[in-house]
Amino acid sequence: MTLRYKPMPSDLAARYRRREPDAYGLVPELHVSDGDGMPCRHCLANIAAGDPYLILAYRPFPTLQPYAETGPIFLHAEECDAYAGGEAVPPILMTSKDYLLRGYDADDRIVYGSGAVTPVDELDARAAELLERPEIAYVHVRSARNNCYQCRIERA
């Protein structure tokens, strides 16, 4: 199965860069990166030391509902290209030994029993296994320690 790693939508990243309200209705906070662990959810690469970035509340779901988790993310404050590697594991995912992968259905609800902490070198295999299940529409990659949203995986 061919997988597609997807960043946050570019139109949404642009809104946050214009300092429009985040998922909590707050203006994104502006900071300067120290270069350590600031993964941008748009280009899916680390934000370099000295570069400005935003911290904001992000809800990677189209509507509010009980499973629509919201959490903090980082985003380059200046425009960056959306991750276009598609089939390749994004650079930000190479910074940890494992991640939580969890499947969601077409109604954006967690598919129970699909979540598992997965070693980084097994991400593709586990995502493909999940996406072989007809009830799973897409997979979230989240931090195994803090549950922070990283990116989405879909069938290509």
From TrEMBL:
<protein>
    <recommendedName>
        <fullName>DUF1203 domain-containing protein</fullName>
    </recommendedName>
</protein>
<dbReference type="Pfam" id="PF06718">
    <property type="entry name" value="DUF1203"/>
</dbReference>
<dbReference type="InterPro" id="IPR009593">
    <property type="entry name" value="DUF1203"/>
</dbReference>
